[in-house]
Amino acid sequence: MPACLICAAPVGDFISFGRMPIANGFLMPADFDREFFFELKTGYCERCHMVQLTELVDPSKMFHDHYAYFSSISVRMAQHFASFAGMVRERYVTAADPFVVEVGSNDGIMLQHFATAGLRHLGVEPSANVAAAARASGVRTVCRFFDEEAGHEIRKEYGAADAFLGANVICHIPDMHTLIKGVRALLKDDGVFVFEEPYLGDIVSKASYDQIYDEHVYYFSLQSLTPLLAQHEMEVIDVLPQTTHGGSMRYVVAKRGARPVADGVAALRERERAMGLMLPATYQELRRRIEKSRDDLVSLLKELRAAGKRVTGYGATSKSTTVTNYCGIGSDLVEFISDTTPGKQGRYSPGTHIPVVPYDRFVERYPDYAVLFAWNHGDEIVAKEQAFRKAGGQFISYVPNVHVMA
What we know:
Elements: E1 12-21, E2 37-44, E3 51-53, H1 75-91, E4 99-103, H2 112-115, E5 120-124, H3 128-136, E6 141-142, H4 148-158, E7 161-167, H5 176-186, E8 187-198, H6 200-206, E9 218-219, H7 222-230, E10 234-242, E11 248-255, H8 263-275, H9 280-306, E12 311-314, H10 318-327, E13 337-339, E14 356-358, H11 359-364, E15 369-372, H12 378-384, H13 386-390, E16 394-397, E17 403-404
Parallel strand pairs: 4-5, 4-7, 5-6, 7-8, 12-13, 12-15, 13-14, 15-16
Antiparallel strand pairs: 1-2, 2-3, 3-9, 8-11, 10-11, 16-17
């Protein structure tokens, strides 16, 4: 058995998704023969309750100078990050001459709200192309991975931080101990570490298995974060549920005893107990539901194609890589995937090599059905695609179960 990345106890896999490529590795035909694959396996640690990948991918294969995801693409996410920044400024960045650091800051979509207010800030982004985009928009950014050494170096150069932020990035970092040591070294005594990630409780309740891919090493709950943080004399002082990414949790962390703990922390701990997030049986049942979702989706797509219906995909997401490869969905079942990201257009989906085309192709000739790979932006997309639906088009979702959306 592999060892838990947090406490070193043996971890048993509860599901393998099989042979899987890099989730965000959209590629050209010339690269097909040298595409990288690994086995995507997920396990649960009975000692510290952390759900985690049990086979890791070298970070340099995922975060590099042609990384394909830019946060600013989604209007909804832009609004969300503006709200996130506003909350931090109102509650936690109130001292004179504050300093804010964000890890995995991408193209600066959140830090720009501190930059335009004239506040000292620094983004730490390992992908060179998106770091360059952030700097071009006026957001101070360094291109590197964050660890304990980075925490000390940043403090030496800029001073202690009032707030250290992360959004859908902390779960990407395999060595959580060096991360937290770096955060603790960088923060002021009363500083806060505020981060949000896809929430394990939502993944379990919705069977949203497409949240599981190479970049997401961990699937956090309050119960799993508590013993991890305690090892570094830190604690969760507040929890704020979010709707982003199909269900996320925002955690506010501080040095132990530095700030009062909100009532919502105890309430969430009890909800997690009631959900059975600390029981191995919960994850065996999740595997059964995931396998049923796979079988139902493939069956539906085969029925539609046999009936002569055109089916395309909507949103060339990292999530779609898990679904298409685990389910064995290729261009025989999904004609193409439309996407608005220029860097993905003209390429092919990882592993299954479905063509990724500009959004205009979707509009020029509407399909009969579109698999909503970007289901976590479903409300935004459905509101946008009224013409598609009026023309008779229908969306297919697979969360929380496979269905044609009404």
